[in-house]
UniProtKB/TrEMBL annotation:
Domain Beta galactosidase small chain/ intervals: 710-835
Protein name: beta-galactosidase
EC main group: hydrolase
Its EC number(s): 3.2.1.23
Domain Glycosyl hydrolases family 2 sugar binding: 53-186
Keyword Hydrolase on entry: yes
PANTHER family linked to this entry: BETA-GALACTOSIDASE (PTHR46323:SF2)
Quaternary assembly: Monomer.
């Protein structure tokens, strides 16, 4: 028995010696806005101040009903000066005896003073976005209650911190906004691991440790927990606290945004054969190389960054987020086919970087400094805190020292000194370190400089969104130039999401501080704007060359592979032929196409084996899915043309005869129960009426950017049809209008016209229709999102039912897609009124439908967006207007944003613009509808 007892304890000792001590965590707060812990709280000023109560931690106190909201531009003296006093009682496990115990704050706004059991934990921490810790081993009582007291000052006592963080173009919050926890380590422990894992399989690491150990052992594990390669170890010299080690691995799966392969590197301190302390880091093997006057190479491949700027933000919790939010943000960016994100303008939550590692996004991590800078001592401390927390993420490929002049150049050398990977340092908005990153360059000025420059081109902010301007508007022109410029490394849009914050002091109103905050591609709660889909198409790594579905189409599409690491044979392609009949019974056929072998940056063909009857369908849809199975984009190709629909839908014949009456001012025409009145002088439609009453569609066509010089109207019968037409005269009546009334009651309008100027914002025909009467529209064309002249992509051809809304982009209620605006490639439209409906059909291609005039949101003082709309209420356009950005007029966003150019060809009527429309004002004008139709992509 005694021998068995001794053997048993030897086994226990052996097991204990094998199992290393881990760093243990004990959360005192919750982990994010979806998991909080209440602490005692006292706010010194503003709402709910002057009394002890409780507050969830982590949180920003404004979002919990305390203090005062203020935006960074707000200069009111008394704003943002409140303090928050926190108290929390906690127990420390008795098993933590003879261990080092830290208290860790992942983020606190702004100056943070910490006491444990009435004693200071250390100097007040200044700086909001950085992980900081205090060694409280000597201040805590094991197994008993301990009192944590924290005083947080929203405004820093260090003016440089305020200049760098608080006087900025974003919301300013206060409070302990990221998690707080205790960290327990053995007395001999690893303090820091710096890892450089290269694409060639070479793993280098620097390890700093405290205490005595004989060696450090390293193991690499795959995502499924299997050890990869050999375990290796390196001896430690007595009296040293740092070691550098290296090892070569083979047959690794590399990390990239397309294939974010991760490994776990496990580091163990060993003394006398016993494992003392063990730390694990998620790593990715990849090489980042910047080649002067050339570009940025990842794993040997030259990159184009398709990026966006992102704030750590959520409307109901301010800067307090969660891993769930990080996942949602990254998935949305990936859905837009982005591959990069810039941390604006401070380091993010650690879980956001974890998600960028695991899902695959390149990251530019940024030391705060908007237009102001930290002083050198403060900046040095905060930079090292950022580096210590973030340095091993494979997603991080750039560091940024401040933003737009907020660069303390005395800190620059620290990045190279502290970073084992020697990642490139960027000064956003500067020409610095071989990079041209200037923000918001006008297209002609910027591209002109790019074409004649020598630096790597990578604007860290371009196309500044606001309301519906920017982002998708202009991106096609910019991206075409960037893609084709060898020195371009792409760029970053401003910015990801509207900064709309819940105002607890205003009954939960979402506040963007006027036009300061609505800069996003998505809304505050990630509502997708039209630009979302434009970016998704323009930045698709599968580029599909435009082609027409003519009789000679053989099923071949020319593709360009714009991936960096993926062959298109790793993607999947499917197609769908569809007859666009309203209702659920629309016919369709589907199939898959063999993915072609097209290497990155090369071109090739995709062949679809279409059925023999493919031309009997209305549209072909082609979908590409990435190697991860997620949709890259679905392209739509009309097969039937508007003239084909018009031929089938327009009814001309009827049994009734047309009756014409006229007086000194009007023509009054009756046909098959439809009564029409036209102005005898101008030719404009004055009234349409059926048995149910008047349809309030009238006063058209009025030419936009053209003269309504229709004159000398005459009437005549052509077979059974009545024709009312003006006379062409080269000098005084060069624009012509012709009405044809059919026995069926249908009305045809033909207009030939010349714009009044060579350069025009838009051209087309306007009618009056009261907005109060509209209930919905159903149309065949591109949708469901509206378009601008410089934002035509991202829509899909189909039949769309849109109920009326009065939404304005970037404003409550953030209801998308919007109703009012321009829609492209209209074939027909049914206007569904509250009393009556009517439909309009065209036999012409490329007709734009204009629905009313959206609200013009408050622009900046420069009035750059200029979202211009025609007169009238309903328009049928040959050309529409572009939209600008917060920083640029429409015409400076590229060729697509410029005005239309038309020539009158000496008023040659054969060269006039033309518009042909057919109107059905009958009681059964809703016959096109039938059932439900799709309302979103």
């Amino acid at each position: 028995m005694k021998r068995r007892f001794i053997l048993f304890w030897c086994l226990i000792i052996m097991i204990c010696s094998v199992k290393a001590q881990q760093t243990e965590k004990l959360y005192l707060s919750g982990t994010g806005n979806d998991n909080t812990v209440n602490w005692d709280f006292f706010c010194t000023a503003g709402a709910n101040s002057g009394k002890w109560t409780t507050i969830p931690v982590p949180s920003n106190w404004e979002l919990q009903g305390f203090g005062q909201y203020n935006y960074g531009f707000n200069k009111e003296e008394n704003k943002g000066k409140e303090q928050g006093l926190y108290k929390y009682t906690f127990k420390v496990p008795a098993g933590w005896k003879n261990r080092k115990i830290n208290i860790v704050f992942e983020g606190s706004m702004t100056d943070t003073e910490v006491k444990i059991n009435g004693k200071s934990a250390g100097e007040t921490h200044q700086g909001s976005f950085y992980v900081f810790r205090y060694d409280i081993s000597k201040l805590i009582k094991l197994g008993a209650d301990n009192l944590l007291e924290v005083t947080v000052s929203k405004l820093s006592a260090n003016q440089s911190v305020n200049e760098a963080e608080r006087k900025a173009d974003f919301w300013i919050f206060g409070g302990i906004f990221r998690p707080v926890y205790l960290e327990s380590l053995p007395l001999t422990h690893i303090d820091r691991i710096q890892i450089d894992a290269k694409a060639n399989g070479n793993l280098n690491a620097k390890i700093a440790y405290t205490g005595d150990a004989d060696k450090v052992e390293v193991e690499l594990f795959t995502k499924d927990g299997k050890r990869f390669g050999d375990r290796f170890n390196t001896a430690l010299k007595k009296g040293t606290q740092n070691i550098t080690l290296g090892h070569q691995f083979s047959n690794l799966e590399l990390w990239s945004t397309e294939f974010p392969n991760l490994y776990t590197a496990q580091f163990t301190l060993i003394r006398n054969g016993k494992k003392i302390h063990q730390l694990s880091k998620k790593i990715g093997f990849r090489t980042v190389e910047v080649k002067e006057r050339d570009g940025v190479y990842i794993n040997g491949v030259k990159m184009k960054f398709k990026g966006v700027n992102r704030h750590s933000f959520y409307p109901s919790s301010g800067r307090t987020t969660s891993k769930k939010i990080s996942i949602a943000d990254v998935l949305l960016m990936k859905e837009m086919n982005m591959n990069a994100v810039r941390m604006s303008h401070y380091p993010p939550d650690g879980h956001f970087l974890d998600v960028c590692d695991s899902l695959g996004l390149f990251v530019m991590d940024e030391l705060a400094g908007w237009h102001g800078t930290y002083d050198t001592p403060t900046g040095t401390k905060l930079m090292k805190e950022m580096m210590l927390n973030d340095e091993n993420h494979p997603s991080i490929i750039f560091w940024a020292n401040g933003n737009e002049g907020g660069h303390n150049r005395e800190l620059d050398h620290l990045f190279a000194e502290e970073d084992i990977q020697k990642r490139q340092l960027i000064h956003p908005w500067e020409v610095f370190n071989g990079f041209e990153t200037t923000h918001y360059r006008e297209f002609n000025y910027g591209i002109g400089n790019y074409d004649h420059g020598h630096n790597i081109l990578m604007p860290t902010e371009f196309l500044h969104g606001m309301w519906d301007g920017g982002h998708g508007a202009g991106i096609e022109d910019y991206w075409n130039a960037m893609w084709n410029n060898p020195l371009s490394a792409g760029g970053f849009l401003w910015d990801f999401a509207d900064q709309g914050v819940v105002r607890t002091d205003k009954n939960g109103e979402l506040d963007t501080d006027g036009n300061h905050g609505p800069d996003g591609i998505v809304g505050p709660y990630h509502e997708k704007e039209g630009s979302f889909y434009t970016i998704k198409e323009v930045w698709s790594p599968v580029f599909v060359e435009k082609r027409e579905m003519t009789a000679g189409f053989d099923g071949s599409f020319l593709l360009e592979n714009r991936y960096a690491f993926t062959n298109l044979n790793q993607c999947t392609f499917s197609w769908r032929l569809k007859k666009l009949k309203a209702g659920e019974d629309a016919e369709f056929k589907t199939g898959k196409a063999d993915a072609p072998d097209i290497k990155p940056f090369e071109k090739g063909k995709l062949k679809i084996n279409l059925p023999a009857d493919w031309r009997n369908f209305d549209a072909l849809y082609l979908t590409a899915n990435g190697a991860d199975g997620k949709e890259l984009f679905t392209w739509s190709f009309p097969i039937a043309l508007p003239k084909d629909d018009a031929r089938q839908l327009v009814v001309k014949t009827g049994s009734s005869k047309i009756a014409l009456k006229e007086d000194a001012k009007t023509y009054q025409v009756s046909s098959n129960g439809i009564d029409l009145t036209f102005d005898k002088t101008t030719g404009l439609l004055q009234q349409a009426k059926n048995a149910k009453g008047i349809i309030p569609f009238s006063n058209g066509p009025v030419l936009q950017e053209g003269e309504n010089n229709f004159k000398n109207f005459t009437t005549k019968m052509e077979d059974e049809n009545l024709v009312i037409s003006s006379k062409f005269e080269k000098k005084e009546s060069f624009n012509t209008l012709k009405w044809t009334i059919y026995p069926s009651g249908w009305l045809k309008m033909e207009v030939n016209y010349f714009p009044s100027a060579y350069f025009t914002t838009f051209v087309g025909l306007n009618f009056s229709y009261p907005e109060t009467e509209i209930k919905a529209v159903e149309y065949k064309g591109n949708g469901p999102y509206r378009v601008w002249k410089n934002r035509m992509k991202g829509t899909q051809f189909g039949i769309w039912k849109k109920d009326y809304n009065n939404s304005a982009t970037g404003e409550a209620p953030w209801q998308y897609p919007e109703f009012k605006g321009y829609y492209s490639n209209m074939y027909w439209c049914e206007f569904i009124g509250k009393q009556q409906s009517f439909k309009v059909i065209t036999d012409r291609e490329d007709v734009f439908l204009r629905l009313f005039t959206p609200k013009k949101s408050k622009d900046t003082e420069y009035d750059n967006m200029s979202p211009t709309f025609p007169n009238g209420d309903i328009s049928f356009m040959n050309g529409i207007s572009a939209i600008g950005t917060k920083t640029q007029k429409p015409e400076t966003t590229g060729p697509m944003g410029m005005k239309h150019v038309f020539y009158d060809f000496d008023k040659d009527p054969t060269r006039a613009l033309n518009m042909t429309l057919y109107f059905d004002f009958s009681i059964d004008a809703s016959s096109l509808r039938g059932g439900t139709t799709k309302q979103s992509q």
